[in-house]
UniProtKB/TrEMBL annotation:
Its main location: membrane. It holds the Pfam family DctM. It is a multi-pass membrane protein. This is TRAP transporter large permease protein. The complex comprises the extracytoplasmic solute receptor protein and the two transmembrane proteins. Part of the tripartite ATP-independent periplasmic (TRAP) transport system. It comes from Rubricella aquisinus. PANTHER family: C4-DICARBOXYLATE TRAP TRANSPORTER LARGE PERMEASE PROTEIN DCTM (PTHR33362:SF5), SIALIC ACID TRAP TRANSPORTER PERMEASE PROTEIN SIAT-RELATED (PTHR33362). It is found in: Cell inner membrane. Keywords: Cell inner membrane, Cell membrane, Membrane, Transmembrane, Transmembrane helix, Transport. The chain crosses the membrane at residues 7-30, 50-70, 135-158, 170-195, 215-236, 242-266, 278-298, 334-350, 356-382, 394-422. GO terms for molecular function: transmembrane transporter activity.
Length: 427
């Protein structure tokens, strides 16, 4: 059954059918051919129960927050401010790409939105200053992946919802690995540009007084992040309520910088509706597919397969990592999460692993899928913003950052406290 489902999934995706529809079609097929009793009669009830959750309300709020920051011009000011602080490093403006992506990851919660934001602002600078298009584009694509690791993360919210795991603890667990990945991206960029200085463009040093003035454009993002995370961990608000507070804060910041217009509000709302509708279609479709898979006994079949192989807990984790790396080449990241979580997470937890730790490990693997062809969404987002050159340049430029992510996977497996330290301290 596993083979039939895998072939069906890849075949339908190759036809460019929307992912949410693919999940429903697979669910219908599994229900028809493998399920002992018809579940399609319960489709209406299942759709309602899968979407009737206060936790999921946080998703449109965080999407709207990111839309406001992007469309009000705050992104451009943030990028210019970080340019003043990091362009003296080997690699110059490439570091501003990663730093800006890190800042926006701490507010938007979406990797694709973060990559699109930074790419739109940064690409004209690359052409004007003569940067190597491969490394410059790869840094944007990789930096954008931090949007699903650094809290607040939409993907962590979905993971917490599907596994009934504490979302605040997941947010805490993602903070250190997210910052470590950002620093790793900066380090690998500096090393590459010290070896090949011509790839990094011009290193620019700004007067210190100008750097201090630039902080006024960074402060609003830092304050907004502090408000969102602070209200969650002081108990003043749930993640959903904190997301609503964040939207109000984003509007206030946009108003201070005279970025609020009727067109901005309209475009932000339209963008939020499109992105949220896509996410919810995937979540609901995956819920139906998971229901049919459970009815058909796939979880039991996979468990028996792994147990029959006689694997130790560590070997099981390594097999799971390999599965996610391979599936990440072909399946869109959110779909990969919601399809595999109900099957993989119980197996991992049964082996004695912490579900919060595994959630962070999974997110790193999902991040990797965002910048590995042929279905790496961030690669296409960045290429779309370039409007010239070949897709292969973006793919090549992302390779060093994939290596950093693989090192983070190894580090998380070897030292689980990287993810569990903050949750344990706060609890």
């Amino acid at each position: 059954m596993i083979g039939y489902i895998s072939i069906g999934l890849l075949g339908l995706l190759s036809l460019s059918i929307p992912v949410g529809i693919v999940l429903f079609l697979l669910g219908f097929g599994v229900d028809q051919w493998f399920s002992p009793f018809p579940l399609i009669r319960a489709l209406g009830s299942m759709v309602w129960s899968a979407s009737n959750s206060a936790t999921l309300i946080a998703i449109p709020f965080f999407v709207l927050l990111g839309e406001i920051l992007v469309r009000s011009g705050i992104a451009e000011r943030t990028y210019a401010a970080l340019d003043r602080w990091v362009s003296w490093l080997p690699g110059g403006l490439v570091h501003a790409n990663v730093a800006t992506a890190t800042m926006f990851s701490a507010t938007s919660g979406s990797s694709v939105a973060t990559a699109a934001t930074v790419a739109t602002v940064a690409m004209p600078q690359a052409e004007r200053l003569g940067y190597d298009p491969k490394l410059f584009s790869g840094a944007i694509a990789a930096g954008g992946t931090l949007g699903i690791m650094i809290p607040p993360s939409i993907n962590l919210i979905v993971y917490g919802f599907l596994t009934q795991t504490s979302i605040p603890q997941l947010f805490l667990a993602g903070l250190i690995p997210g910052i470590a990945l950002a620093l790793g991206f900066l380090v690998i960029t500096a090393i590459i540009c010290m070896i090949r200085p011509e790839l990094g463009g011009e290193r620019r040093v700004f007067p210190f007084i100008e750097m201090l003035r630039a902080l006024t454009h960074l402060l609003p993002i830092v304050v907004l992040f502090g408000i969102i995370i602070g209200t969650i961990y002081t108990g003043l608000a749930t993640p959903t309520e904190a997301a609503a507070v964040g939207v109000a804060g984003a509007f206030a910041i946009a108003a201070v910088f005279h970025g609020v217009t009727w067109d901005m509000v309209a475009q932000s709302v339209i963008g939020t509706i499109k992105i949220t509708s896509m996410i919810m279609l995937v979540v609901i479709g995956a819920s139906f597919l998971n229901l049919t898979l459970a009815s058909a006994g796939l979880g039991r079949e996979l468990r028996d397969l792994l147990e029959g192989m006689g694997l130790t807990p560590m070997m099981t984790i390594l097999v799971v990592v390999c599965i996610y790396i391979v599936l990440g080449f072909f399946i869109e990241t959110l779909s990969l999460m919601v399809v595999t979580i109900p099957i993989i997470v119980p197996l991992v937890v049964a082996q004695g692993f912490d579900p919060i730790w595994f959630g962070i490990l999974m997110i790193v693997l999902i991040e990797m899928a965002l910048i590995t062809p042929p279905v790496g969404l961030n690669l296409y987002v960045v290429q779309g913003a370039r409007k010239s050159g070949h897709m292969g340049e973006v793919m090549l430029g992302a390779i060093p950052f994939v290596i950093v992510m693989l090192l983070m996977v190894v580090a998380l497996i070897a030292f689980p406290s990287i993810a569990l330290f903050l949750p344990e301290v706060m609890s």
